[in-house]
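[User] Once you have settled down, look closely at the record that follows, and write a paragraph about the fold.
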Amino acid sequence: MSAYDVHQALFDELDARTAYLLWALRESVFVVEQECAYPELDGRDLEPTTVHVWVSDSGTPVGYLRLLQDPPPDADRLKIGRVLVTPAHRGRGLAGTLMGRALEIVGARRSRLDAQSRLTGWYAGFGYRQDGEDFLEDGMWHTPMSRPGRAR
């Protein structure tokens, strides 16, 4: 991945330009491309434990995900969400690169995600298993999935 760089930062570590580019990237995929009118900025990005992970091509973000800490009693569990790669950069393994970094951050902890249902097989390759009923969100079917923690 010669031109690609992987980054991670907490909200307070993001400079204004990078934050703007990340939010614009999420909006371009989830709101515009997928035609889901919803409040993309949900306040969770500001939480002090939220980790933003992105892949850039020559300094421009082209893929993204975030990790959120679940509230008590599951504060030891992380939630992966907002996983995306721009259309022009799909098919190059960047989503796998993002998930690899996310799992490095997760470490031995438990984690969960709400996969677009058509992608459950892909997430299963990272050790995630369905743990609830499919649900419709913003016009798309999603499947709750979890990955158990590992013994230290």
Q: What stands out?
A: The longest helix spans residues 16-33. Residues 4-147 form a domain with the Aminopeptidase fold (CATH 3.40.630.30).
